[in-house]
Amino acid sequence: MSEIILIQHCQSEHHVNNMSGGWTDTPLTELGRKQAEMIGKKLKEVVDKNDFNLYSSDLLRASQTAEIVGSQLGGEVIHDQGLREINTGVAAGKTKDWARANKNPRTKSGFDLDYREFQDGESWREFYTRVCACMDRIYESEKDKNLVIVTHGGTLGYILAWWMKFEPEMIVNAYFSSSVGGITVLSQNSYQQNVVNKFNDTSHFDLFS
Fold this sequence. Notes:
The protein has helices at about 30-45, 60-75, 95-100, 125-140, 155-165; strands spanning about 5-10, 50-55, 75-80, 145-150, 185-190, 195-200. By secondary structure, it is of the alpha/beta class. Keywords: Hydrolase.
């Protein structure tokens, strides 16, 4: 495989209306739609439309980003629930204030892999295991294709950890923090080492600044 291009979804309603993230299913804002168009225009210059498959989380903010990007690239979107953000259980659809007030109590200081923030949600270990299983499945089935994957901030960070072959315990002390609309590019070199060629590139938004 030549490249995996990761895109963090663009600005969503939950970024501006005090709704929690995770599995809260909110659409893009008008700005988010414009951001997705700019990503599509940038990728159109570097992606061969006949040599890639476009995957996306099925949550609205990611799938809408992917649909707009796909309309520019000329590709259909393959939705995969495994690319969702961490499952926030009972906090899905709730405000940030509600989520802060209803987290499960922590039993350890620092980052706890097995901490389940919300009832019926995922622990960080379960989240990472799910992301790794999803990427193993996609990677195995698409070895001869480039991939464009639209997902969420937490998921994107864990895809990077998967690419770097992190054991679960290794994510206790490391995290890859990307931003809205950021583009990350992964590939392999001639030694078959997994390479991060570009991380969280947002230069396509320079016109907004």
